[in-house]
């Protein structure tokens, strides 16, 4: 009688094991699906960050070119140091497209704007790859989307009463830059990163 009792217990336990195993397998597949989606989102965000930064860096280069041309020629050249001028050009879109492509994504749009008081660019991208097959229907054709904003922040302070026709001393986060409009050589300008920082908006 005792042997039959144990056999009966094993018979009752087997369905429970099968049921628990099924639940664990489902949970594992669900976790994998969420991990796939998270990986796709992270990849999309990285691509968007890179595209936005590329657009802002290209705009900063254009800003430096226009600043160089304005010194000694335009009495409002100090405005460029405040980030008040708009350096937007076709290069910003090309730069963003290139960085998005390098991250296996496609640039949907890149728009200039002002964030936290600084000029910048918002890049919207869509991944070229999909989330992939999972237990969640439709994920095999889903592509991740993301957007990011990068801004150009002036780094230099100067006397607000400075005469743009006379030598001006800039304090760029502790680094001194002297510009004399009457004796200006474009090669005397420091690297763009000294005058302007480019970073993702918080």
Automatic annotation (TrEMBL):
Sorted keywords for this record are: Membrane, Transmembrane, Transmembrane helix
Q: Which InterPro entries match?
A: Tad_N
Residues annotated as transmembrane: 16-35
Q: Where is the Putative Flp pilus-assembly TadG-like N-terminal domain?
A: 12-58
Organism's domain of life?
Bacteria
Tell me what this protein is called: Pilus assembly protein TadG-related protein
UniProt organism field: Streptomyces sp. R21
């Amino acid at each position: 009688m005792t042997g039959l009792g144990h056999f009966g217990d094993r018979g009752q336990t087997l369905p429970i094991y099968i049921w628990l195993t099924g639940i664990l397998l489902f949970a594992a597949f669900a976790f994998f699906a969420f991990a796939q989606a998270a990986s796709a989102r992270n990849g999309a965000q990285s691509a968007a960050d890179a595209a936005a930064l590329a657009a802002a860096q290209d705009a900063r280069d254009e800003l430096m070119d226009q600043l160089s041309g304005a010194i000694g020629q335009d009495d409002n050249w100090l405005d460029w140091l405040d980030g008040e001028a708009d350096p937007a050009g076709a290069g910003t879109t090309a730069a963003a497209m290139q960085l998005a492509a390098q991250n296996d994504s496609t640039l949907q749009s890149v728009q200039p704007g002002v964030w936290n008081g600084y000029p910048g660019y918002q890049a919207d991208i869509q991944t070229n790859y999909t989330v992939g097959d999972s237990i969640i229907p439709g994920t095999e054709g889903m592509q991740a989307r993301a957007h990011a904003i990068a801004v150009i922040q002036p780094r230099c302070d100067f006397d607000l009463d400075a005469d743009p026709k006379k030598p001006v001393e800039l304090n760029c986060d502790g680094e001194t830059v002297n510009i004399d409009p009457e004796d200006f050589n474009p090669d005397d300008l420091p690297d763009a990163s000294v005058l302007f920082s480019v970073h993702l908006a918080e």
